[in-house]
Each structure stands twice: as structure tokens, then as C-alpha cells.
UniProtKB/TrEMBL annotation:
PANTHER family found in the cross-reference section: BLR1237 PROTEIN, TRICARBOXYLATE-BINDING PROTEIN
Organism in which the protein naturally occurs: Plastoroseomonas hellenica
CDD domains: PBP2_Bug_TTT (cd07012)
Pfam families: TctC
Superkingdom assignment: Bacteria
Name of the protein this chain belongs to: Tripartite tricarboxylate transporter substrate binding protein
Family: Belongs to the UPF0065 (bug) family.
Upper lineage: Bacteria, Pseudomonadati, Pseudomonadota, Alphaproteobacteria, Acetobacterales
Length: 328
């Protein structure tokens, strides 16, 4: 190919790239052209619903179109997530995701009808949601190392409760077992309320659950917190140490709220949504809401959110496999 021909070819390529960029920019400028549907894959009234409605109001104001929250619950979040995965990738259908339908359900369900890495466009991490390891009145252990020593001395004897099989509390306990090589006995409950009741009543000695349901009891001393599962201490429970502080390296187990869309969304639309979501996370009122739900506000880029999903899958795969946790 001659120098002249190569120059013409280069100009053609640049022209094509410029044209494609203009099309994407025009699409982003025209969007949104109608109301946006924000799917929550869980029932109304829960923390995901509360966050989605606050985020929806903020996005609506920033983007100039109403955001309609659509609760499509069922199958541990998979019904709503599948609807998003199959939606047109035009930026008018989004999901307020948690780490279950956004990542780990792929490891828990044998025949999941979507793949979080392939079928979603990551937009932004909103907040992390840590757990607390809670001791009831009759648990002998006073610290997390005490619990590990107790479980090691009595394999399979220590009972622990979670809000359900495959819930993040269950995964967090399995991670503790995986890292410390202990073995405990899982008692799944149907939600946090009955678990909390049995811990307070002394029927159950140990629980793994999200922080928000236990802050008042921990502050009053009716329940004891052995550790929080975040990388840093929580402002709501500043006196409760992390597991890492207590010598269990790499023990971090958190869920999250994130904004995702169908795979193939235009870059310009994703960027506008990311900017609007980060503005929501930075807002003082939104931060108060999130911390009140036991969450730690985060924010970040679409690339970081995509890396977070991949990292979740890599982290949890060997733990879920070893613990033989599966849902159908």
C-alpha cells in the first residue's frame, strides 16, 4: 500500500470513528426521551426499595424525565434481574441491584437465565452494606477469636442463624469457616425479624446479618457484636472492631447497592447516569439515608463497578463450592 493510499485509509478510519462518536453523542443528548423504569428485584418496603425511590427522585431531577420504580420480586432477585437483562439497552430500563442478582446468584443457581458479567452494563456502585456477627446472651465467646477457638474445639456444634440459605449472612459465615478452617451448624431463618427475636430470647446464640436490624440492641447491650465484616469500622457502631482488626486477615464480606443496565448501553448514556448517580451519593441527604440503612456510601466509575462484579465472583466461587451452598 502506498503512502497516499495509507493516508486515505487512515482518514477513512478516523472519519468512521468520528461518525460513530457523533451518533453515540446524539443518542446520549436525545436520551431520555420518555420515563425511565428502575426495576427493584425485591418487594416494596425493603432497603433496596427505599434506596431505589430516593435514587429515582434524584435521577429524575437530573435527567428531566420521571423515574418509575418497578418492584419485580421473586427467585432471590432473579426475576427482576432477568427482566433487565432482556430489556432494550437504550437507557430506559435500569436495575437497583444488590450483590445477589448483581453477582453471586450466578454461583448459587445452577440454571441462572442471565450472566452478570455478560448481560449487564455496570453504571455505578452506590453503597456497601456490611454485616455484623452478633452474639446472644448465652454465647460463651466474647470476641471473634474466642468464637473461632470455641468452634474449633467443638466442630459442628456451634449453631449460627442467618436470614436464609444463600443470603449474604450465610455466605459471610461460610467465608469465616473457609478462612479459619472451622465448622459450624447453619440455622436458616425466614428473614431478619425471627432471627433477631431468637437471638434476644436466647433460643439462638449466634447470628450473621446486616447491621441495620441490630444497632439498637447492640447499643443497649441486649446483644453483643463480635465484629463487623467491613474493611473499616462503622460510624453507627464505632466501638465494634472489624474482623481484620482481630487477626482474621482478608475477612471482608459486604453486599452492595449498585445501578446496572442491560448490556450494550451507549457510552454516553452510561456516563450521564454515572455522573447523576455519583451526585446522588455525594448529596448529604442521600448519605444520611444510606448510613441510616447500615450502608457505607461509595460511588465510582462504571469500570470500577464492572471490576467489582468480577472480583465478587472470583472471591465467592471457592467458598460457595466448598460449603456446597446452592439454591434452586
Amino acid at each position: 500500500m502506498s503512502i497516499v493510499t495509507r493516508r486515505h485509509a487512515g482518514r477513512a478510519i478516523l472519519g468512521g470513528l468520528t461518525a460513530a462518536s457523533l451518533v453515540r453523542d446524539a443518542h446520549a443528548q436525545a436520551w431520555p426521551s420518555r420515563p425511565i423504569t428502575l426495576i427493584v428485584p425485591f418487594p416494596p418496603g425493603g432497603s433496596s426499595d427505599v434506596v431505589a425511590r430516593a435514587l429515582g427522585r434524584s435521577l429524575g431531577e437530573a435527567l428531566g424525565q420521571p423515574v418509575v420504580v418497578d418492584n419485580r420480586s421473586g427467585a432471590t432477585g432473579n426475576i427482576g434481574a432477568q427482566a433487565v437483562a432482556r430489556a432494550r439497552p437504550d437507557g430506559h430500563t435500569l436495575m437497583l441491584a444488590t450483590s445477589g442478582p448483581g453477582a453471586t446468584n450466578r454461583l448459587l443457581f445452577r440454571n441462572l437465565p442471565f450472566d452478570p458479567l455478560r448481560d449487564f452494563t455496570p453504571i455505578a456502585l452506590i453503597a456497601e452494606v456490611p454485616l455484623v456477627i452478633i452474639a446472644g446472651p448465652r454465647l460463651e465467646a466474647r470476641t471473634l477469636p474466642d468464637l473461632v477457638a470455641l468452634a474449633r474445639a467443638r466442630p459442628g456444634v456451634v449453631d449460627y442463624g442467618t436470614p436464609g440459605a444463600g443470603a449474604m449472612g450465610h455466605l459471610a459465615a461460610a467465608r469465616l469457616e473457609f478462612l479459619t478452617r472451622i465448622r459450624m451448624n447453619h440455622v436458616p431463618y425466614r428473614g431478619s425479624a425471627p432471627l433477631n427475636t431468637d437471638l434476644l430470647g436466647g433460643t439462638l446464640a449466634l447470628g450473621f446479618d446486616f447491621v441495620a436490624s441490630y444497632v439498637d440492641q447492640i447499643r443497649s447491650g441486649t446483644l453483643r457484636a463480635l465484629a463487623v465484616t467491613s474493611a473499616e469500622r462503622l460510624s453507627a457502631l464505632p466501638d465494634v472492631p472489624t474482623a481484620v482488626e482481630q487477626g482474621i486477615a482478608d475477612y471482608v464480606a459486604t453486599s452492595w447497592f449498585a445501578l446496572l443496565g442491560p448490556s450494550g448501553m451507549p457510552d454516553g448514556v452510561t456516563e450521564r447516569l454515572n455522573a447523576a448517580t455519583n451526585a446522588f451519593v455525594a448529596n448529604a441527604e442521600a448519605r444520611t439515608l444510606l448510613t441510616g440503612l447500615g450502608a457505607t456510601p461509595r460511588g465510582g466509575t462504571p469500570e470500577a463497578m464492572g471490576a467489582r462484579i468480577a472480583a465478587e465472583l472470583a472471591t465467592w466461587e471457592p467458598i460457595i463450592r466448598e460449603a456446597s451452598i446452592s439454591l434452586e
